[in-house]
Write a structure and sequence with these properties.
Layout lengths: L11 H5 L6 E3 L5 E3 L7 E7 L4 H18 L4 E7 L4 H8 L5 E2 L5 H10 L7 E5 L5 E3 L2 H8 L8 H16 L3 H5 L6 E3 L5 E3 L7 E7 L4 H19 L4 E7 L4 H9 L4 E2 L5 H9 L7 E5 L5 E3 L3 H7 L8 H17 L2 H5 L6 E3 L5 E3 L8 E6 L4 H20 L4 E6 L4 H8 L5 E2 L6 H8 L7 E5 L5 E3 L2 H8 L8 H14 L5 E4 L2 E15 L6 E8 L6 E2 L1 H7 L1 E2 L1 H7 L6 E3 L4 E3 L1
Parallel strand pairs: 3-4, 4-5, 10-11, 11-12, 17-18, 18-19
Antiparallel strand pairs: 1-2, 3-6, 6-7, 8-9, 10-13, 13-14, 15-16, 17-20, 20-21, 22-23, 22-26, 23-24, 24-25, 27-28
Protein name: protein-disulfide reductase
Keywords: NAD, Oxidoreductase, Repeat
GO molecular function, one term: thioredoxin-disulfide reductase (NADPH) activity
């Protein structure tokens, strides 16, 4: 039966029972009568031991359950998707609530179907009257924890409205103080009142001590923090940790000179939601007035270090101007020469001076043998390289390796016809930082002046091959114009220069027109059987579209819209 708002209403006792069973079980084997659930809110938890997201969510649910079970009006029933009784028992031993016996597969299957479970973990919340309050229990618990109780749409709406008010009236106290805590802690366990931080610039550092990116950034942040404090500035940092165990938290926090929220503090999840956290490490800057100054200054600290302090809009505008000036002054030698390292290597380790490449178009190719997308992209880039070199011998590619050892580097470089930085060269790190290389393969195009043309050359080569050269905005506009022009051309045509077969409109990177003997790009009318190619200009002068194309070009009847394949009533 459905309620007035469309949510289903169930008799919990009949839904959870079977002809031979009127009880649920606890993980110690005790039986609990299903009738004892009447008058309580009930969570049906669909989960399995083999499911990674389930194993990560269950501890969060346990925490919420333990906080709510003291009231006596909330219960959870585990509906297992495990494959055998042993796996069920092992997983159920971690849960303080009830379960459908593993042996009753008919009821478990029926509940899956009744509540339309298409993925796990899945948590359905049922009210005291049997009405389904929400089937998004997992998302609600993840976002709001125990604060989401009683998990009704009205409660979630109320919480969202509270958050909006909090953002409008934000202060350091509203961010960091909770009902049970008005302090942060130092590494030695001392409680420091949050009032001591008011009026200061405060960084909220969201981190996970086991995550390498966080470990690497923490060391840089420690350096910046020490320098700012040495300047006598009113600056503090508060760690908001996502560590799962206290030992990891203590070990990570022990190396930090700033404050933290206590381990597993209820505000950690709340703050992640409040600041719409999408990644770690994240460092949110709160100004002396308690308002958010910047949502994440990690990248700024990575790039500029203490120069980014005090992280104000004015400072970022200043850094942007500095960056523009650097880009304007950039030369090939300024990015590729470091001390006495003023060379690249070719085949057999032959040294090629960077000065030999000045004034040429260069592609910096960040890649590695262990990376499957890199290996898949290499043939495409190699093909484009040869075609570009055929018309511009000055063009060059430089391989910048992320391989783990010399052998892997040598094996991968042996497949490439271009130059490379030597394996393990210190310039690799500065180039990765300069061009913000966060994933590979990546290709950066450098023009004849030494300035950066684009950092998205990998996508351009993948989409257009050699035809994208020299990767400038002007060239891309030409390509887009050619694509736009093609919309009015027929898909097929017959031509007097090739009467044997129809010519089909196809995409080509570079070809020689068999009509005018000139080079063509992007589009050609081609014979798939003979390899005959005509430039659209030549083909359309004498070509005649097929009957289907002529029909496509007719205007539709009034009141109809045609997309070239089907006509619809307007």
């Amino acid at each position: 039966m459905d309620g007035e708002d469309g949510f289903a209403v169930h008799d919990v006792v009949s839904v959870l029972s079977s002809p031979n069973r009127d009880y649920l079980i606890r993980n110690n084997g005790n039986q609990v009568k299903i009738t004892s659930l009447r008058g309580k809110k009930l969570g049906l938890y669909f989960s399995a031991s083999w499911c990674g997201p389930c194993r990560r969510f269950t501890p969060e649910l346990v925490e919420v359950y333990n906080a709510l079970s003291l009231k006596g009006d909330f219960e959870i029933t585990f509906v297992s998707a495990d494959e055998d009784d042993e796996m069920f028992k092992e997983y159920f031993s971690e849960m303080p609530w009830l379960a459908i016996p593993f042996s009753d597969s008919d009821t478990r299957d029926h509940l899956d179907e009744l509540f339309r479970v298409s993925g796990i973990p899945h948590l359905v919340i049922i009210g005291e009257n049997g009405k389904v309050l929400t089937d998004s229990g997992v998302e609600i618990i993840r976002e709001y924890g125990v604060e989401g109780f009683p998990f009704t749409p009205e409660r979630i709406k109320e919480l969202k409205e509270q958050e909006e008010v909090a953002k409008r009236e934000q202060s350091l106290r509203s961010i960091l103080v909770s009902d049970s805590r008005d302090f942060v802690i130092s590494a030695n366990g001392m409680k420091v009142p949050i009032s001591k931080l008011e009026g200061r610039l405060v960084g909220l550092y969201f981190s996970l001590s086991s995550y390498k990116l966080c470990v690497d950034f923490t060391s840089k942040l420690v350096d910046v923090y020490a320098k700012v404090k040495a300047m006598g500035e009113s600056f503090e940092i508060v760690l908001i940790s996502f560590d799962d165990d206290e030992e990891s938290f203590n070990e990570g926090f022990g190396s930090m000179p700033w404050f933290a929220l206590p381990f597993k503090d209820e505000s950690c999840r709340k703050l992640a939601r409040y600041f719409e956290l999408s990644t770690v490490p994240t460092l949110v800057m709160i100004g002396p007035d308690g308002k958010t100054l910047h949502s994440n200054v990690v990248e700024a600290i990575e790039e500029y270090g203490i120069q980014a302090y005090p992280f104000t809009p004015a400072k970022f505008a200043e850094l942007e101007e500095i960056e523009k000036a650097k880009q304007e002054a950039q030369t090939l030698e300024s990015i590729l020469v470091s001390g006495n390292r003023d060379y690249l290597i070719g085949k057999h380790g032959v040294k090629v001076p960077v000065s030999d490449l000045v004034g040429k178009n260069i592609l910096l190719y960040f890649s590695a043998h262990w990376c499957p997308p890199c290996r898949a992209f290499l043939p495409k880039l190699t093909e484009a390289y040869h075609k570009i070199k055929a018309k511009d011998s000055g063009f060059e590619v430089i391989f910048i390796s992320s391989d783990r050892d010399q052998t892997s580097f040598d094996d991968f470089f042996s497949e490439m016809p271009w130059l490379a930085l030597p394996f393990g060269d210190e310039r690799k790190e500065s180039l990765s930082k300069m061009f913000k290389v966060q994933g590979i393969p990546k290709a950066v195009a450098i023009g004849p002046t030494g300035r950066t043309i684009t950092t998205q050359a990998r996508d351009l080569v993948a989409d257009h091959g050699a035809d994208a050269y020299p990767f400038t905005d002007e060239r891309l506009q030409e390509i887009e114009a050619q694509y736009e022009m093609a919309k009015g051309w027929p898909d097929k045509l017959s031509h007097g220069l090739h009467e044997e077969h129809e010519l089909v409109l196809t995409q080509h990177q570079i070809y020689t027109c068999d009509g005018c003997d000139e080079e063509g790009h992007v589009w050609a009318f081609s014979c798939e059987e003979c390899g005959f190619d005509l430039h659209p200009k030549c083909a359309l002068e004498d070509g005649k579209g097929t009957e289907d194309d002529a029909m496509d070009e007719e205007k539709p009847e009034e009141g109809w819209i045609c997309d070239g394949k089907v006509c619809f009533k307007a």
